[in-house]
Amino acid sequence: MAHIGERIRLARTRARLSLEELASKMNVTKQAISKYETGKMAPSSATLLELSAGLGVTLDFLLRPMDVQFEQLKFRKLSKLPAKDRKAIEADVQDYLERLLLLERIVYGDDNCPPFSGIRHLPVTALGDAEVAANRCREVLKLGIDPIANLTSVLDMWCIRVVPALAVQGFDAVSTWLDQDIAVIAVNSSEDIPGDRQRFSMAHELGHLVIGASPAVDEEKACNRFAEGFLFPREAVLLELGKSRTRLSLEELHRLKQLYGVSMQTVVFRALHCGVINEATARGLHIRLSQSKVGKAEPFAGYPRERSELGRLDRLVDIAVAEQLITVGRAMEFRA
């Protein structure tokens, strides 16, 4: 039962609790918690129940084997995110993936989790190549130049697992691989993050998964450029704005935000990168946007977040219950 100790440590990490803090909550010694985690001492059934309550997890969580190993998550702002928060996000993502992949095996059969079915290693030797890569992805996905109504559904077309992650301030999204063939994008689940930023973060992480940036290219900037082009392609920009403009109104930026699901700031960048406006016009628009903000929000109505309850895990739970592969009670454990 050595995996129980690993599960206790994982749950404690996700809860961002130190050994001392958990021991204090349970009224036991720090040494006892350490022995549970290292497998030197087995917790009793009563202690396991207390641990599940103190850690805010189900008993099923603590008893579940550790069967998911992923590459290190690629945090966009690694230097600004405390180590405790990064580890908590990793633990939360691991828990969700374990439940998701177990469900996939139940629904699709043992060891038959669909692998990533998209394209990889698209060459990027300059920032402009990132936009070419975005166009190539849209072409393969047969998206044309139309707005993407639901980005999560598009990512699911390539069997990319989109995972809701802990609502940690300063964190947007991360991506990783399982066994080199299962792609994962984990997104901050906070309802305070507007939908346009949520979508841009997912598109940015898609860039990390599909492009192969040369050492001379800043990969973060390349993925930003990829996200711009994927959500609001060049042809659509020229169709909406024309080939050359001397000024753009905030109302126009907002209309395109609502149509393409990108921020007004991103619309300005798209106009600049597609040659529609010059640097001076772009600077002026960014200043106007900054002055017009209400708190941290852009002016006018926000863009709605994509609904996490329509994701892959919930869909598989519905299938498994309908096909009588799991009970309703088991379904609740998967959705926990």
Commentary on this structure:
The structure is a single chain. This protein is mainly alpha-helical and 336 residues long. It is built from 16 helices and 5 strands. A 3-stranded mixed sheet has the order 2-4-3, with helices on both faces. α13 (264-273) packs antiparallel against α14 (279-292). The longest helix is centred in the first third of the chain and has 26 residues, at 83-108. The chain starts with a helix and ends with a helix.
Summarize the SSE layout with pairings:
Layout: H1 2-14, H2 19-26, H3 30-38, H4 45-55, H5 59-63, H6 83-108, E1 122-124, H7 127-140, H8 151-157, E2 161-165, E3 173-178, E4 182-188, H9 195-210, E5 211-213, H10 219-231, H11 234-241, H12 250-260, H13 264-273, H14 279-292, H15 312-322, H16 328-335
Parallel strand pairs: 1-5, 2-4
Antiparallel strand pairs: 3-4
Helix pairs in contact: 1-3, 1-6, 2-3, 6-15, 7-10, 9-10, 12-13, 13-14, 15-16
Determine the fraction of residues in helical runs and give it as a percent range: 40-55%
Q: Write down the Rg.
A: 22 Å
Largest sheet: 3 strands, mixed
Computed structural class: mainly alpha
Number of helices: 16
Shape: elongated
**Head-to-tail CA distance between termini:** 23 Å
Q: Can you count the beta strands?
A: 5
Chain-averaged pLDDT: 91
What is the percentage of strand-forming residues? Answer: 5-15%
Which residue ranges are poorly predicted, with pLDDT under 50 across at least 5 consecutive positions? none
Q: H/E series, N to C?
A: HHHHHHEHHEEEHEHHHHHHH
Give the neighbour order of strands across the main sheet. Answer: 2-4-3
